[in-house]
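User: Fold this; tokens only.

Assistant: Input:
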Amino acid sequence: MAAIARDKAESSYHRLKELVINYRFRPGEPLSPVSIADRLYVSATPVREALARLHGEDLVDLVPNRGFFAKTLNSKRMSDYYKLALQISISAIERGYTRFVMDQMSHSEITNAYICKNDGKKREECLISHAKALERLYVQVVSLAGNQVMLDCIRKFNDQTHFVRLIDLEVESNFHEIAADMSALISALARQDVAAATANLQHQRDKKLARMNDLVKEGISRSLKES
């Protein structure tokens, strides 16, 4: 029984986390454990546990005596995460660039730069797959440092910025640009060119920050439409 309860709690956590990082709740919406439990077809107990975990990961807000609330996308907050991720990534590359070995699947997904042209669910799945490939690359780069705290930070960055990353990839020109930049980063790391890898990451950050206000505006517009 205990094992079944743990499985349900873990499943509820992952399902709710997917909803949260994709902003499937309205900005500032109260996150009622009972309502969410009905939505996920589970009991309220694992939902409460999941909400507590997500609050610990800074993915939902908690107001004492009032409960949990959905976060609102914020341009400065997203920009700050990208600035932090840059510093962490550069530090990791400087420490461990000689150990870089690219995961073959992620390399293929990033460098092939196919456009997700299918409509509906297939296109959405394609974009999600590409976003996750980028996120795995970020983790692989930072893992070069051999520092668990830095690794935890980049995983948090991936969660916090996942939604704006997806929105960015939906624009065909941005998709091509991101894929080309990431392919160039992989090449720089493969030849152990720290200066080129650092310049690449800085260039990527600057372009992302220039688009951030529009990305966040679009993200807020979408989350406001959630019922």
